[in-house]
Structures are given as C-alpha cells and as structure tokens.
Amino acid sequence: MGSRRRLTAALAVVGVAAAGWLGVPRRFEVEGVSMGPSLLPGDVVHTGLFPEFDRLRRPRRFERWVLAAADGLAIKRVVGLPGEQIAIMGGDLAIDGSVVRKGPRLLAEMGSVVADTDPDGTPPSEPGWAWSRPSGDVLDDAAFDAGGSRVLAAVRDVGLAAIVDVRDATATTPEPVRLRVGDTTITVPLVEPGRRAVVAGRLDGRLVVATWRVPPDARTTMSRPCLPPATPDAWQTSDPWPGPDDGDAAPALAIAISARTTLADVVRWRDVSWRPGAADRVSWMLAADEILVLGDHPAASIDCRHWGPIKVSALRARVAARSR
C-alpha cells in the first residue's frame, strides 16, 4: 500500500509539472515588418495560457496566429475561414461578395498614421477649421518600412483621429465638435467635460464616426496604435458612403472646435489596403480545412496571396498580446 501511495503521489507531481509546462504562455520575437505597424522588429508577443491547446479550437477572423510557413514560423492574420469565398476588392477584404467591416478597435490595431509631407509638418488649415487636410492621394508607404523600393498604391480609406479637452459641457449645454469627411459635415455634441476621442472617416465603403472618453492619465499622441486609447469595439455611426465614389482619392478631412475646447492632438489615419498577390490573383475559394492569412503591411508581406490557402493544421498558437 505504501508503494502504491508513493507511485500515486509521484504521478500526481508529474501531472502537475506537465500541466504547468503546457500552461506557460510562449513568447516570440518579431522579425520583419509584414505585420506593421502593430508588430515591428524587436517586439515580443506572447500567447495565452495553454498555447498547445490553441490547435484544438477554430480560428476566428482577424486573429493573429503563429503558423508554420515554408521557411519557418511566421505571424500572420487570419482573414478567411474554411468554406468561404475570399476576394480583394479595391484594397478591401470581401467574404462571399460582401466587404468586411472593421470596428474601431480593429482599425486601431491594423491602421497607420499618415505622415504630413510638408517641411514643417503643419500644413495651413482652412478658415473656420482648427485642422484640415484636402482630398488627394494617400499612399501605402510606411515610416517603419525602409526596405527595398516598391510601387506605392493609393489608399481610399482614410480618416481623422483627434483628442480634445472639453472644459465645460453638460447635457443641456453640450460642446459641439464639427467634422468634415469628404462632402459630409457632422456635428458631434460632447456632453461631458474632460478628455474625449473624436474619430471619423471613410472605412470599408462606409462613413464612420465614434467618440469616447479617454482616461485622464493616458497618452495624448497617436502613432501605434493610430487611434486614441480606450478604443471601443463599435462605431456610433456607420452609414453607406454618401454620394459617388471618387476613385482612389482619399476624402478631405477637417475638424472645428469651440472656444471651450482644446485640440490636444489630431492625426490622419489610413486603413490597411490589401493588394493582389502572385499573378494578380484576387480571389480564393477555401476548402473545409483551409484558411487564408495575410500580413497587415501587404507591401512587405509574403502570405497566402503568394502561397495560396493553407491548411488549418498549419496554425501553431494564437497571439494574445504584444508585451513590449
């Protein structure tokens, strides 16, 4: 009996040790800029608890996964799920013929800040607007990618992200913020004092607008991610893009505030614009055991546009977060 108890205790210790080992999150250092700007060289990402069990669950759209690629492990974003018809339409991702709509939190992760090209970085604003940018070309270049030369592509999905400090506002006397996206002007009433995020633009064929409270101790500059902190999951306004499509030109943008509001920071953001892959292929029909993965910076990403769809079994672990 004593030997049996000792054996049981030893097995229990081994079991606990194995469970502890399996439960430890795995860490990976990022190489390359294919997942920029959210993941850049030198960043360290980690999985969740029990990463080995990730292979037993179905991946979800827009999750980032470590996967087995032809030349080793890679990190990519799952965009197409088994059985779906996937297409790239004007830089947007379409599933079974419908463009996929991103929420603010996903845009914050995948989008980039558009750098001003003026020498002093402060182009003049139009009269009556605190900040404005004209309609025109916005290209898919990136400050974080100083690699080889490549042909730049125009990006249509562009907007503004602002952090404003509201000194005095109530439900009965709200502080109005005026926004202009293309030919549409929107008035957003802010009914609480403090620091607020105001975001608007064209995204996935829609006019989107959202505001939210920014924590008092949060940063007041935007670069990575491209939207203010505490980003919500859903837009407050998400309407079909009004009027005719103006080709590849990015919409004009502007913001105006009252005397009782301060513009703490404002940037232009652009969405990721996916390009065709090898031999200009832009559509894929996925089998029941296949997925499609892409990089967030298509100009520097080798992914399913070049490989074709991959098996679900190629996924190794889901990326939970960036640790630095």
Structure explained in plain terms:
It contains three helices and 21 strands. With 324 residues, it is mainly beta. It has two domains: 22-90 and 275-322, Umud Fragment, subunit A, CATH 2.10.109.10; 111-270, Jelly Rolls, CATH 2.60.120. The radius of gyration is 23 Å and the shape is globular. A hairpin with a 2-residue loop joins strand 3 (64-69) and strand 4 (72-80). The strands form four sheets. Strands 1-2-21-3-4-19-20 form a seven-stranded antiparallel sheet.
| Alpha carbon gyration radius | 23 Å
CATH class category label of the largest domain: Mainly Beta
Q: State mean pLDDT (0 to 100 scale).
A: 87
- The percent of residues in helical segments reads 10-25%
User: So, CATH architecture of the largest domain?
Assistant: Sandwich
Low-confidence stretches: 9-21
Could you give the count of β-strands?
21
Which descriptor suits the 3D outline? globular
- What about the largest sheet? 7 strands, antiparallel
Number of DSSP helices?
A: 3
How far apart the termini lie comes to: 52 Å
Fold-level CATH name of the largest domain: Jelly Rolls
Structural class: mainly beta
